[in-house]
Amino acid sequence: EVQLVESGGVVVQPGGSLRLSCAASGFTFDDYPMHWVRQTPGKSLEWVSLITWDGVSTFYADSVKGRFTISRDNSKNSLYLDMNSLRVEDTALYYCAKELRVSLGDGRGYFLSYFHHWGQGTLVTVSS
Amino acid sequence: EIVLTQSPATLSLSPGERATLSCRASQSVRSSLAWYQQRPGQAPRLLIYDASSRATGIPARFSGSGSGTDFTLTISSLEPEDFAVYYCQQRGSWPALTFGGGTKVEIK
Q1: B34 touches chain A (CB under 8 A)
Q2: Which of A5, A9, A73, A111 is 20 to 30 Å from B27 at the Cα level?
Q3: B58-69 pLDDT, tens per residue?
Q4: Strand, helix or coil at B80?
């Protein structure tokens, strides 16, 4: 069974920093691109960041570019999000999410940037 | 950024009725659109990808259609567990992925 367990969410002051972690199990972690997605209280979802399976390439939403850094440690089956210069508008429930892999049979497949499995989320509150 | 607009914001229906949800993109995303269901207190669940393909384990009463800028999620006959919020998401402008604002399907 796929499991994604986020941690690290706390209350932090504007301008502060935080590291979120996501522990993955139940699948071959280093095969998969991984994402962070956030959900503001009572509002919709916002994609935050993507990292390729090998950690070589990373991508960010404009709203967090230059402030957040995504990384992974495949030896620990773990995904991270380093958050700096936090703003009140970064307050949200942060999910890690695993990409969809479409199987072609015979062990072959390809990835699509849809979110097939999600963690339960970790709450980040930015407030003075 | 591609903006996804979902309508209606709220859909009030009874169990057994048919639900039709709309998602409109500000520019073409081809068929690169997914639908998610989110129940209260839970993470979203992938229902449909690439506009019309059901994800593993999703019941056949859920179907998706559309391409370009106009997409529809249809629930053929609402079950009690289907009352939830539904979101669309596009990957047509990868890596800039975006979600719609959601449609709440509530019990009438």
Answers
A1: yes
A2: A111
A3: 999 999 999 999
A4: helix
